[in-house]
Amino acid sequence: MSGRPALATLALCVGTFGAQTVGTVAGLGPGAFALSLPLSEQPWTLATSVYAHGSAGHLLANGLALLVVGPLVAYVTTGVRFHAFFLATGAVAGVVQIVASAPFGGSAVLGASGAIFALLGYLFVGNRASERVLAWLPLGRRGRLAVFVALAALLTAATAAPGVALVAHFVGFCLGAAAGRFRVLHVRSGEGDSSGGGGR
Question: What EC number(s) are associated with this protein in UniProt (predicted)?
Answer without folding.
Answer: 3.4.21.105
